[in-house]
Known about the structure:
InterPro entries: DUF2809. Helix content is 78%, strand content 3%. By secondary structure, the chain is mostly helical.
Amino acid sequence: MRLRFDSRCAIxxxxxxxxxxxxxxxxxxxxxxxxxxGDVLAVIWLYCLLxxxxxxxxxxxxxxxxxxxxxxxxxxxxxxxxxxQVGNRVLRVVLGATPDWLDxxxxxxxxxxxxxxxxxxQSLRARSRSRQLKP
Length: 135
């Protein structure tokens, strides 16, 4: 694993961040889309951010993004169990305040979407290369 800068992934990370910020602020009326969709996008956003800065296999970066979501969910569970509260309102919105199994499902959906997208991208690239090699 090496440090690098991938401008395309950085642009995707910025775009996903803008969508997440919009969902967190103006998307309150969207119900399940804000909750479930936001958690799916959070994993994808973190993957894009990691991919913009690190040269590592996609499945490792996707796994790291998934692990971060699961750690946050575990922290929410422990905080609820131990009756701790995050005092900062912005952090409560960003990190969440209540644990939910649907959040875990959303993180895994985001992880699966990353892997499926990478697989499709690699398949299309391989097919394009094989067409170029044929006379």
